[in-house]
């Protein structure tokens, strides 16, 4: 009516008439609402009434003010009039909606009103608009918009305060389907490209084309689509949790055909309502994501159908990922900003994993768990031409795959806050950890939520099916170093129209390696599970070893490709994509090595029944250490860091007294490693940005914390060290035993003779020692070659450059310590491959680290001791032993020239050990007339010369250096004539230097005296006379200082040697050679006789004995006991610095005071004996020393 009277009335009159009409309409609607509540409206008028109300609702809310058409400034009264008109229009729309609500709420008017609204909504949006039907179409559009708005409000209310009409509950399913079918008609015939079909849970769907244009003649229908989108948004906000199974299918189908196409169509050139529709469509899926998150947090749980999960994962997530490739509109909802596809997929995984059922045999848990992981690891059949968005061609983000794996393993995995996914890599914690004493007393204990892994822990058969058939294949796929055979699935292809930014590439790489680190940790957990399959443990170790030495398939190529296509400016990025990849790769490999070490520790502590896997674990660690020290061709520092991580488990190995293998604590081998290097290769989780996997303490999983926190080592009760003590004889005996023994081995007893019937596994540590030797040689050579070639490293920001410079020396120190422990504990024996590390340069100019030289000297010393034993026992081939002895003596002599007293002490101890063995071994060869070994001869002569130079330099060397040097020279002198040729000038020089009082400390003089005694035994008669001349000197009356000194003793020894020379030459039994073994045996027997002599006691119980000092001699008298055979006899002992005489004399009754000579009848006996008896006595006692 407004248009009819517009030409006959003024503007003021028109406004007043409109105000009057709106007021009357509002009052009329109020009256009709009262009539409808009383159910007095005729049935025949319900349909036209409903249609008119829909038009009123739509027209009232879309009407605009007439002031906008006025060019001049409006008057104040006109503005107030327009406000009143708008208020009345709003009242009309509100009353119309309330009237429809009342009509839909009453049973008598519900059916007719609903039919009228459904007929108004059922419209084809693909109708071509012409001049003939334009008015009709516009009327239907207005009617449909009002009907959709009114019906949606009546069904789902105004959440969260107003609920919907209960009578319309049974109409939800057909109305949802109607909304979807009406919205889907908008795009019919717009493109011929949407013909690709694929199946989702038995429902056919179409693959959508990206960025399809919206036709301009369809803009009039956009209001209907917008109302439908708002209706679905109202449903998602309010009553989505009340949908039944069939309604869920209708809902998913409706948003599939009616809402999803708007995600990838932007309608360029059309009105802004198209962008609003697209924005609201994104908001719907954001609300669905929030709804799924709430479902997983419900106490009783709510499980939407699988169709919804598959639809969101296979179609909506790829579409939203495509949207992220476009520029986001300003009105994009903040709840889904960023990686929307990942957020949605995580919400689906989070809701899907709350299964709430027990895995009985007849249940479908196996299929559901398999389908669950299959959807997370889905690979589309159609891949984009421009390349993979994610590594390996997977459809979903790696964090989605990670969460899917965690949901099957971790307990209470529904506590994760996915809003912090980009800022933290925290994984779920156990629900049991939140139980506190306060919560127990208050009764607010959270209900535990167990994973399938935990639920099947006491059902071994089901547990093995879960691990071997579901979890393990996905772990192998994740860590595969070759292209895995992946099952492709039909789904919406993800097509990116722009290059991936560098920041997003960083995020993808970080999460890809986070997934693989979790897979590595999971393999270690499966190995340590008591419920696991023992036959699969070797497979776990093999996978861990591959992860420790190889890069998973596809990552390196993807990184290089993305680094070329990166659009970020170099100045804006601190690290390159390749550097981030290298850092994450090293962290993954260190984690794999760490898990192997934890598995090794479990065999020594909490899982002793895994003793059969110890050889496989040691082989994996040895192969890893050999790879990084020898075969690794990338960055040198990376190789050294990984080598250090690999040999630390080997350095902890040791052997107990009962031949059981032992694993020392980690602190035992890491004391000399800098803190920054140790934190890099240790078990600190913060370094790898991975929180520790918290496991339920009641589960049969061995925790990894005790293995690294214990201060003491662990002994494996069923792991025994194989000793090679018997050499070839041991091998021959074992072969003979195997020929005669054909019994079947049982689990309780072993037929291996070396185990003496014990149950367990014998481990040969010779391969471990061989790897340590090769690592030591490779690291030393590499360090010497690149010592001055240091470039910027990726870890320079976290690791101190000085620590990195010490890294080769630290590795060598640990290797030397391992070799020393293995040699001293009988776990390794000398062989020709020891030349690899013996030939290394030991000079202080080449090795700047003193700790390395100390450990090297200790290792060489222990090697010399074991080599000496093997030479005497003839374990190894004689030529090989001599070759090792030559090189060992050379290294020890070189180390003995150091200024560090620890190094000198170790070197001298090794020289004494090897020379004592060579002396006994070469004595027979010299008797047969064989020549000296030239190399050993020159080596020992240079050592003696060095000791003489050290002794001549007064005050330049400490006593801690002199004592071991002089002691080693004494043993070297004892080898003269059998091992090497001791030249006369050198021995005279050595004697004269030692004869001089170079040090006042008594300990130095003692060892100097012993060394001089050994030199005197090698001197000829002429040399003894010459040394006597130099020792006494021309001034015989010069008094020496009154201090402890060795010069008088040495002079007595020289004098005794001169006195006994005539007897030595005339003795027929001497044969010109001195045999100290006879003298030692005689002295031992005499010392035993002295100890066992029975002494008589006086009345007070004190022994009847006395002692007198007579010049340089000591006279001792002891009376024999009355109860023994020595009754009436007196023991007389005369001791001097160079001899000792013991006699038994008959006790006489004369008084000692009156006749002192009566107690010395042996004096007459000494002078009355014949000359022949005196000569034999001198021969038997020559060369005796105190």
In the predicted model, the low-confidence regions spanning at least 5 consecutive residues are 64-71, 325-338, 413-446, 567-573, 684-709, 726-751, 1067-1074, 1150-1172, 1174-1186
Structural class category:
mainly alpha
**Proportion in helices:** 55-70%
- Mean pLDDT over the full residue set: 76
Please work out how many helical segments DSSP would assign.
Answer: 43
N-C termini distance:
142 Å
Q: Report the sheet-strand fraction.
A: under 5%
**Could you tell me the radius of gyration in angstroms?**
49 Å
**Largest sheet, if any?**
4 strands, mixed
Can you tell me the overall shape? rod-shaped
Strand line-up of the largest beta sheet: 5-6-7-8
Number of strands: 12
Question: Could you please describe the fold and organization of this structure?
Answer:
- By secondary structure, this protein is mainly alpha-helical.
- It has a four-stranded mixed sheet.
- A hairpin with a 2-residue loop joins strand 9 and strand 10 (1113-1119).
- It is rod-shaped and about 165 Å long.
- It starts with a helix and ends in a 5-residue tail after the last helix.
Briefly, what is this?
With 1186 residues, this protein is mainly alpha-helical. It contains 43 helices and twelve strands.
Feature tags:
56% helix, disordered C terminus, 5% strand, single chain, four-stranded mixed β-sheet, mainly alpha, 43 helices, 1186 residues
